[in-house]
Amino acid sequence: MAWMKQEKVGTEEENVEPEVCPFKSSQLYNVESNGTKWPIVYHDSYNISFLGLQNLHPFDSGKWGKIYQFLLDGKLFNSKQTFRPSEPTESDLLIAHTQEYLDSLRWSINVARISEVPPVAFLPNFIVQRKLLQPLRLQTGGSVLAGKLAIERGWAINIGGGFHHCSGTSGGGFCAYADITLLIRFALEKFESIEKVLIVDLDAHQGNGYARDFMIDDRVFVLDVYNRNIYPHDGFAKRGINRKVELSSYVQDDEYLPLVKKHLTESISECGPQLIVYNAGTDILDGDSLGCLSISSKGIITRDEIVFSLAKENKIPIVMLTSGGYQRSNAQIIADSILSLQHKQLIGLN
Q: Which UniProt keywords are given for this protein, alphabetically ordered (predicted)?
């Protein structure tokens, strides 16, 4: 989930373990999960819009609301049948982040670097917190909630999240909070019966944030399929990938889909996970100038079916995060994919 210039980021010295913080808050996941609601998480405040600055970034910062509306239009559910996340407290965020990193977000210039919108540096930080960082915090809370729902219901989708360039000590690529790390730490330490987690990252970009965070944690297995020629070129973080599938630019469906199925099948067999965290970026779509791959919209839908089908076949709970994608058509494709999963009975009320 990134769009910035092609430069190498990250150093070995930055790979610092965050402070150990007790689980003081259960508001992120302690919700009533009943069969009348779909395990789909969304909040109107996911969407980012202020002073037109969102137009300075190629990412569609209203994508999440469009996905939700397309799903409403497709009659998958009504507005009372989905879950709304809570915003993480600082104590919650410290489970994934160092205090030093969270303190750095109180400086707008640092947030401007992470969000890759330079004018943000000149805004008062209280505006940056409310208009930019709060939506990202809500999406982070949504990922934790979706993880809990997936464990309870077999599957869940956060219509947001997937900030895979953020680690406990550093953000970048429009990723200010390490929602994947936070979700997994909750799953391993707070939720029941989770001893092994498989991250399946099919965003076009290398997922370097969580790879740094879990580099020495053998409870987390990483399958990352990405374009080797684009951001972030994080050589150190590659050491944290258990199964690395590096693609050339402009790979098409006929090569990509068999690779995904083969490596996911083998990864499941190798690590035996109790939870799959699926980072389902759509920047692999043909025409995305930042992902630089050539996967069709149908290929994205088939990809998601492969992942959910293998999860269901192996009886592994799966949580999907929508992650990156930089074309205005992405929202419709994501919604179409979710509707297709329901049509093929890979997701549903249960």
A: Chromatin regulator, Hydrolase, Nucleus, Repressor, Transcription, Transcription regulation
